[in-house]
Design brief:
The chain has four helices and no strands. With about 130 residues, the chain is an all-alpha fold. Helix 1 packs antiparallel against helix 2 (about 25-55), helix 1 (about 1-10) runs antiparallel to helix 4 (about 95-125) and helix 3 packs antiparallel against helix 4.
Length: about 130
Amino acid sequence: MIDLIQRIKASCTQNGVVESCHHCQSDHRQLCHANIEQLVKAFVEATLKHNVIESLYMQDGVPKDHRIAHNKAHQAIAQQLQAIRIIFSEDGNCVLAIHGVDDVLATLQTHFAEFDQQLESYLLQL
């Protein structure tokens, strides 16, 4: 997932320079948009699959409090991903999508530290 985020961010050579894709040349914008759209789609799918797999692992042997909090964290990530998809469907602004992906990266890093490491410990004890 982190690799996909890095690929998304690297796809836009104007990130940090312009605030909207509308400022880019048309031919560049079309290529960039297509690449980022596919990468965002792959990222959303990978993240949601990750969440589903973790939820399955948590069914047995993981304390209920952890399961509930972990699944709530998954819902928060899913909401961030949905917001990115909405941005894309409304105006196709890759720059805003990349900023959204940055936010998801921060959330994922926190999620890994707060939930996934603890989940790994629970699973290794089984």
